[in-house]
Amino acid sequence: MKKTIGFIGWRGMVGSVLIQRMIEENDFENINPIFFSTSQPGNLGPNIIGKNKLQDAYNLELLNTMDIIISCQGGEYTNFIYKKLRKLGWLGYWVDAASSLRMKDDSIIVLDPINLQSIYSGINNGKKTFVGGNCTVSLMLLALGGLFFNNLVDWITFSTYQAASGAGSKNILELIKQMGYLYNSVSDDLNSVNISILEIEKKISKSIKEKNFPIKEFCAPLAGNVLPWIDYALKNNQTKEEWKVQAEANKILDTNKLIPIDGTCVRVGTFRCHSQSFIIKLKKDLSYSNIIQILQEQNHWVRIVPNNFQSTINLLTPMAITGTLNISVGRIRKLNVHSKLLSIFTVGDQLLWGAAEPIRRVLMILINT
Ligand SMILES: NC(=O)C1=CN([C@@H]2O[C@H](COP(=O)(O)OP(=O)(O)OC[C@H]3O[C@@H](n4cnc5c(N)ncnc54)[C@H](OP(=O)(O)O)[C@@H]3O)[C@@H](O)[C@H]2O)C=CC1
Ligand SMILES: N[C@@H](CC(=O)OP(=O)(O)O)C(=O)O
């Protein structure tokens, strides 16, 4: 019999990417989906399975009848509903994109190309909560998986270049508005021979500081700027986003000995792909070809980019990767300062492998158990 799956948060940014992927993979043929809403119960649901009415996402009685609930609604909803539902005795699988339950002992962070065995043993041991990892963590593990699997990583430092989408749909819109505002402030001058580039730059820098420049979501300009702060501050001077990398990566890898990972998370003016620059302290001095082979073989999605200008600008950029499941891995080289220090740059779509795809894939595993 087909399992009944409750979808919450299906019309949000992550939820829509999930639904789109499920349609592409014909996943709806194997399930009985029920669509919920926190704001519009009673309205028409998505036209995937024919006419259906949206159910109330706060209706515990109905949620209690689901075999599996998949939530892309966000942490606030999870915090509000999850415990209440479990208290009612609900024994179904809870699959979530939000971070709230990730580090709980009774949850598994899912990224099946990396931790399929943990997912299976979790299921066999009665775990019921499966949560997608932080986007930078999932994208890092997919890119560097081969190095972790071969026990080659001593420690890692990173700088991230995180897209506006990670902050939410309103932030993408704000970035575009900021870009438009800047363009409009100099559009008449761009083809004029009578104005110097420094005058144009001066106008741009002035308009960015105007009070009408849209910064409600980011609290600062992102167009023409970078923001080296994501999420809230922790007492140890990290941001929460930076803290997640070591914590979640070690949980996913189920390491016996903690692999230290730390760095700086930075918001940049791209739309939906996160890039990351890593310095990896290897345990062994490996040859370049050996490293490439190890990275390449770990999973189907890694795309090694040759370390030259044309390949890099064609293949190792957010615009090259956007909307695909590819994980571009390039600028691979040993640093001149030490033969065991490896430098790698990687790009992945943070709404696909960074958010929706790991939970889509675990859903497919769960419906078959
Ligand atoms: N953004 C990201 O990159 C990542 C997000 N996540 C997690 O997923 C959660 C959801 O994120 P995200 O998808 O960005 O959130 P969104 O803000 O896009 O959507 C969340 C919910 O907002 C409601 N909503 C209100 N107005 C609209 C509208 N105009 N269009 C669409 N939805 C609307 C919908 O609920 P309803 O239909 O009930 O009204 C929707 O499910 C996050 O809180 C985070 O925990 C995880 C990894 C990455
Ligand atoms: N914080 C990420 C997106 C995100 O939602 O992460 P998390 O799922 O860990 O809350 C970003 O801003 O790019």
Q: Could you give the topology of this structure?
A:
Layout: E1 3-8, H1 13-24, E2 31-37, E3 55-56, H2 60-63, E4 68-71, H3 75-87, E5 93-96, E6 107-110, H4 112-124, E7 129-132, H5 135-149, E8 153-161, H6 169-186, H7 197-208, H8 240-253, E9 261-264, E10 273-282, H9 288-298, E11 302-304, H10 309-315, H11 318-321, E12 327-334, E13 341-349, H12 352-367
Parallel strand pairs: 1-2, 1-4, 2-3, 4-5, 5-7, 6-7, 8-9, 11-12
Antiparallel strand pairs: 8-10, 10-13, 12-13
The protein binds NADPH dihydro-nicotinamide-adenine-dinucleotide phosphate and aspartyl phosphate.
3D architecture notes:
With 369 residues, the protein is of the alpha/beta class. The chain has three domains: 3-133 and 356-367, NAD(P)-binding Rossmann-like Domain (Rossmann fold); 137-167 and 227-355, Dihydrodipicolinate Reductase, domain 2; 169-208, no CATH class. It has twelve helices and 13 strands. The protein has helices spanning 13-24, 60-63, 75-87, 112-124, 135-149, 169-186, 197-208, 240-253, 288-298, 309-315, 318-321, 352-367, and strands at residues 3-8, 31-37, 55-56, 68-71, 93-96, 107-110, 129-132, 153-161, 261-264, 273-282, 302-304, 327-334, 341-349. α5 (135-149) crosses α8 (240-253), α5 crosses α9 (288-298) and α6 packs across α7. The structure holds NADPH dihydro-nicotinamide-adenine-dinucleotide phosphate and aspartyl phosphate. NADPH dihydro-nicotinamide-adenine-dinucleotide phosphate binds at residues 9, 11-15, 37-40, 57, 72-75, 97-99, 135, 165-166, 168-169, 350-351, 354-355.
